[in-house]
Amino acid sequence: MMSFEVLALCVGATYAASTVARTATGNDYEAPILRSESDVNAEGFNYIYETGNGISAQAHGALKKVDNQDVISIQGEYQYQAPDGTNVRFSYVADENGYQPQSDLLPVAPEIPAAIVRSLEYIAAHPPAVEHHAKKFY
Length: 138
What we know:
elongated, alpha+beta, 6-stranded antiparallel β-sheet, about 25% helix
C-alpha cells in the first residue's frame, strides 16, 4: 500500500511540475519567428520582430544634437498577451528626458480633491511675505 502512495505522489508531482512549467513558459520557447528585420548604421537603427505567440516589438533610434552633445532618441512599442489573457501594449520614447512609457495599463494618480486645488490656488495668489532678518556680526 505504501509503494502505491509513493508512486501516486511521484506521478502527481511530475504532472504538477510539467503543468507549472508549461504555464510559466507557455509555448514561448517554441514560438516561431514570423518576422525579424534590423538595420543598424552610423545615424541610428531600426528593428521589428513578431513571433507566432503574439509577441511583437519595433523601434527606431537616431542620433541628434542637444546642447552640442550627440544623444540618441528612440521611439518604439511592444506588445504581448499576459497569462490572464490581457493584451499588453506599451509605446515609449527614450531620449535626453529619460524613458517615457505610455500604456493603458500604467497606474494613474487619483484626481486632486477640489479643496486641495482651491488651497493651492489661494497660496499661489497670496504668497507669504518675505521676512528680513538683520545680520548679526560677532
